[in-house]
Structures are given as C-alpha cells and as structure tokens.
Design brief:
Layout: E1 2-7, H1 12-23, E2 28-35, H2 39-49, E3 53-56, E4 74-77, H3 79-87, E5 93-96, H4 104-112, E6 116-119, H5 122-133, E7 142-144, H6 147-155, E8 165-172, H7 190-193, H8 203-211, H9 213-225, E9 233-237, E10 243-249, E11 254-258, H10 264-272, E12 294-295, H11 302-313, H12 315-333, H13 341-352, H14 361-379
Parallel strand pairs: 1-2, 1-5, 2-3, 3-4, 5-6, 6-7, 8-9
Antiparallel strand pairs: 8-10, 9-12, 10-11
Helix pairs in contact: 1-10, 3-4, 4-5, 5-9, 5-12, 9-11, 11-12, 11-13, 12-13, 12-14, 13-14
The structure holds NADPH dihydro-nicotinamide-adenine-dinucleotide phosphate and magnesium ion (MG).
Length: 380
C-alpha cells in the first residue's frame, strides 16, 4: 500500500489523483491532503477518503474555522505546515498538484526526505527547476504528471534520461481559438477562452491553453525534466488529442504515446510506477480516422514564441515570464484587459527587465513578483 500526500487536493489535477486513489483502494491510500484556502472542500475530501491529516497553507486562514464536526481530522495552517506534511516519515509519494510557486521549498524538502515526488506544477519547475534538479537523487525520484511530459516519460521507457534522443515533441489541441477568425481574436471574452474543447482544467491553465502560453511553458518544463535543450523540443498542434508526446531517436526511429485525453491516465501511470495497473478500457484510445499534426502559427499564438524566447535568455526571464503571465491572465479573467493585450503586456514586461540572474531559489521566487509588478505597472 502506497501512502500518498497530495498538495492541491481541491484542484483539477488533485481530482485526477483522487480518482486514481478511489479506483485502487488496495494499492493507494490518501495519507494527507493540502489545499491553499478552500477548507470546506478539503475537509469533504478528507472525510471521503478517511484521511486524518489536512493542511491549509495560505498565510491567511480565510473563512475556514475548525469546528467540532471534524473530530477525526487534524487541520494544520500556514506555509510551514506544508513542510511538516512532506517530511512525514509515513508518506511514500508526495504529489504536487497545486498552482503557483508557493510549494517550491516543499518540493526540495520532499526530495531530500527520500520521497518519490510526482509533479504537475509547472510554475515551480520553470522558476526553480535548476535548483530542484540538484536535489533529485536517482532517475524517477521526480515523476512527470503533466500529460505531455508523462507521455515523453513513457516513450523513454518510464525514465527521465534522454538516452539516444534527437528531438522531442509535445502536442496541443489548439484550444478554443484554433480556427477562430484571426482579426476577431484580440476581442474574445474570458467566457469564450474558458471553453476548452478537450480538457477540463483550472482557469489559469485553460486561458494559457487558449493563448498557447501553456505549450511554451511545457516546452521549458520538458527541457528541465529531461535535461534537453529547448531548441530540440517542439510544440505541435494535434486537434484529435490522441498523441500527447513523442520522442525521435538518433537512429531515426520514433516513439509516440497515445492515450485518452484524461488526467486519470498520467496520474495512474506515475502513481503506480514501477507497476502497470489494469484499467477497464472499452475502446482503443487510438480509434480510427485522421490524425492531424500542424505547426504553431506565430500570428495566432504569439505567446508560445514569447515563452521560448524568454527561456533562451535565462533563469531571470523564466521567472519574470511566469509572474507576468499569471498577472496578465488574472487581469483578463477580471475583465480589465483584452485577450489581445495578454502577449503585449508579457512581452513588454520581459523587455523592461534589466536586472541580473537569480543566485538562489529565493531570488528566483522573488522575480515572479517582479514579473507581476511589471505587468501591473503597464495597466495602471
Ligand atoms: P486548479 O486551479 O484547479 O487548482 C489549484 C490547486 O492549487 C487548488 O488545490 C488550490 O487550493 C491550490 N492553490 C491555489 N492557489 C494557490 C497558491 N497561491 N499557492 C499554492 N496552491 C494554490 O489548478 P489545476 O489543477 O488546473 O493546476 C494545478 C497545477 O497543475 C498548475 O501548475 C497547472 O499548470 C498544472 N497542470 C494542470 C493540468 C490540468 O489538467 N488541470 C494538467 C497539467 C498540469 P484552493 O482550492 O484552496 O485554492
Ligand atoms: Mg499539459
């Protein structure tokens, strides 16, 4: 029985992890669960899974108060509680399914405490990847949950080591605006952008998928996870969403990973590693019909190219990119800027940064806030 500590239990990826734990009660148990501030939902999850340990790590407690209704659950509060959670000697696998960069130090602590770490959180990898990787002690101590990276990991024979790899690619469905009239694109509403044709995800990543920033972030994420230069990884549009990632080897052969577009499968394959568990699938995920692969159009999806350019400049611009994008997406969701302004604001934020490279993880984390401020300043 594997004991799982789940950070981000109340979110969309958290839900995929819970579905796996629920489907295989003899293999996994939810040892502890954490959310940022949504105490009500977190307690519902803990009750359902019989989990005695709940953690809410927002510095503010929000509206949630511990009450007598939950005598069997211990709730701990504040950012330090997260560190306690990931170091618990009873835990086997720690899952990072939270958003933002709040969990950066906890990831390193979990690795140092010999835990197997499953990661969906791309912001932490992009901002802190350089430091996180120094703490990974063996292949597969850090396992990718993001579907495209999980696909590549499967193509590499469930390994993060790119032996004999020439190039990698990850796919994108194209989101809601793949065929939308180009001249009307700058004026689409948050409601339009939140209608993803394939995936049900949190709102930030759904907007990032509509702008294709998500694919840019994922190329950076892949280069960190698999130690391969950015320029040997390509994002490719594949509207059927059957192939999720692929690897081309130096001898000209290729491996592609095909599965249904549901985070259940990446969650299952990473959680059950090194085993493979049986899933009752009715139809082959490949199915029949046409499989389309297209290059990403820079006019329609400038954010993809902005992300790659920022990544080539170094660690500082990666952190600025993460902060600037988060701020721009929030402003768009709040109706304060247009869809067309998202790439403009992010590009200007990156261009206006004149500081140096971060010397530590704390420096890198601070630069995320600099990125947010550089966007806010333009909107005032
Ligand atoms: P959601 O918005 O659905 O969930 C976010 C989770 O993180 C919630 O548990 C939330 O807690 C917590 N959270 C919110 N704010 C913060 C914060 N400031 N610091 C730490 N935790 C916070 O997001 P998703 O599940 O969609 O995405 C989570 C991560 O996984 C992101 O990094 C995303 O890019 C990545 N990812 C998502 C995929 C998907 O299919 N959704 C696929 C691959 C990767 P609370 O409820 O208390 O606010
Ligand atoms: Mg993905």
């Amino acid at each position: 029985m594997y004991k799982i500590a789940l950070i981000g239990a109340t979110g969309s990826v958290g839900n995929a992890i819970l579905r796996v734990i629920d489907a295989y009660p003899d293999v996994f148990s939810l040892h502890s669960a954490a959310a940022y501030s949504n105490g009500e939902k977190l307690i519902r999850i803990c009750k359902k899974f019989g989990t005695p340990k709940a953690y809410l790590f927002s510095p503010q407690m929000g509206s949630f108060k511990k009450n007598d209704d939950i005598p069997d659950i211990t709730v701990r509060f504040g950012p330090e509680s997260l560190e306690e959670m990931v170091c618990d000697p009873e835990v086997d696998k720690v899952v990072f399914a939270s958003s933002g960069v709040t969990s950066l130090k906890a990831i390193i602590l979990a690795l140092d405490n010999e835990k197997e770490v499953l990661i969906a959180n791309k912001e932490c990898l992009i901002v802190g990847g350089k430091w996180i990787k120094e703490h990974v002690k063996y292949d597969n101590q850090l396992l990718p949950l993001d579907s495209e990276h999980n696909a590549i990991w499967q193509c590499l024979g469930k390994s993060c080591k790119p032996f004999g790899v020439k190039r990698m690619f990850i796919t994108a469905s194209g989101g809601p605006f793949l065929n939308y009239p180009l001249d009307a694109l700058p004026r689409v509403t948050p409601k339009d952008a939140l209608k993803h044709p394939v995936w049900q995800m949190g709102s930030k990543i759904t907007i990032d998928s509509a702008t294709m920033m998500n694919k840019g972030l994922e190329v950076i994420e892949a280069s960190i996870l698999f130690d391969i230069p950015i320029d040997r990884i390509e994002g490719i549009i594949h509207p059927e969403s059957k192939i999720h990632g692929g690897v081309e080897f130096v001898d000209g052969s290729m491996q592609l990973a095909v599965f249904n577009p549901d985070m259940f499968l990446p969650a299952l394959s990473a959680l059950s590693y090194p085993q493979r568990l049986d899933v009752p699938v009715e139809e082959s995920p490949l199915g029949f019909g046409t499989l389309t692969l297209e290059r990403i159009d820079p006019k329609r999806f400038p954010c993809y190219f902005i992300a790659l350019e920022a990544a080539r400049k170094g660690e500082a611009c990666r952190a600025i990119l993460v902060g600037a994008d988060e701020e721009a997406v929030n402003l768009f969701i709040e109706g304060k800027i247009s869809f067309g302004q998202i790439p403009e604001l992010i590009e200007k934020a990156l261009d206006s940064y004149s500081g140096g490279e971060p010397k530590s993880l704390d420096d890198a984390s601070d630069l995320v806030n600099v990125g947010k401020k550089l966007v806010k300043k333009q909107v005032k």
